[in-house]
Amino acid sequence: MKDSKQPADTHRDPVKTFEGHKDEITSIATFPDGKRIATGSWDETIRIWRLADGREMKKWVVKKKVGALLILRDGKQVVSTEGDDADDDFDRTVYWRLWVRDVETGRVIAGPLDGHTNMVYALDVSLDGGILASGSYDCTVILWDTTTWQRKGQLLQCGAHVIWVRFSPTGQLGVATKEDIQIWDSDQRERPARFKGHANFNKSWNRSLTWTRDGTHLLSAGDGHDPVVRSWDTSTLKQAGDPWAGHDDKTEILHIILNPA
Question: Which residues contact 12 (CB under 8 A, 6 or more apart)?
Answer without folding.
Answer: none
